Each structure stands twice: as C-alpha cells, then as structure tokens.
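Supplementary Text 2. Reproducibility record for the structural model of the 183-residue chain.

All settings were left at their defaults, and a single model was retained for analysis rather than an ensemble. We include the record here because the model underlies the residue-level annotations in Supplementary Table 4.
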Amino acid sequence: MRYRFFAAFAVSPLLIASSLLAMGGSYGKGNPKSPISSSGWSAELVELVNREDRIGGSWVNQFDSFDYAGTAADFNAFVQKFAMLNEGPHIVTLLQQTDPATEPAGASCDWHLSINGHWNKAPTSVGLTLVVGRRIKLADVVLPKGITIAPVDNPSPEIQAYLKTIARSSDAPTTRPSDTPRK
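Retained model, structure tokens:
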C-alpha cells in the first residue's frame, strides 16, 4: 500500500507539469482590420491568415491552424498567394470529405491553412489542405506552378481524375511520392 501511494505521489508532479506546458486557444472569423500575426510571419502570410473568408481556427503551443469557407474562385485566389509565400515548401493536400454526419461540429471548412513554427521566428512549415467534395469541385481548382501535391492514401475517383488531368499539363503542380511503399 505504501508503495502505491509513493508511486502516485511521484507521478503527480509529472502529470501536472505536462498539463501546464501545453497551451491552446481558438481564433474567430477573419478580420483584416484586427489581424492575427506573429513576428516571424511574413506580411504575405499575415494577409492570408486574416482573410475575411476565415471562419475560425485554433492554436496549440507553436502550431496555428485556420479554417476557410468559400468558392472555387476564393480558393484559387488563396492558393495563388500561398504559392508566392517566402515560407515554404508549398504543399497542398487533397483531403476527401468524410460523411458530414460523422464530422465534428464546426468542421465545415473548404480549406485549411496550418502553420508550424516557434514564436518570434519564421515558420518551419506552412501547409494547405483542400477538402474535396464540399462546395469546391476539383474541376474548378487551378493550382499554380510551384505547388506540390501531397500523396493521398486511397484517393477518391474525383482526386484520381484530377491528378491524371494535371499530370498531362506542362504547367501542372508536381506530385510528391508517398513516403510509404504502396502495395
């Protein structure tokens, strides 16, 4: 009995310390007049983060994520600016929408920007995810040169058709091979 009490007493500070080291919060709608920024972000990244079509976001420690909703034209304008960021590489992930009935509340974004970096320093990575199958059809998406498309496990027929179409174009973005071997 004495040993169980000692073990619980010894582990408790570790649990409390790990809880105190993780911080997080949420972001509201985009407002260019009251921008969210970090001293390590470029002015172009701050502009993308604070677009009016941002519907929310969150942060945990040095990881920031922002959700956007809009049309294909809105996404195309966004990805054009994303491709010109100094922060790179410029990777876009095509994520197939899951069943809306099983998605968590508030998961209705059309695209998602994630920034990983340390406070007051340039981000170590900036990623963009397009949710396929909601309001934006891939046939209406124009990815600029300089974009790399991340590999997708089990791509939907719409994603497969899009990847075949852009592979035939000389101005197409590149596709990055998967890090894991395919069976």
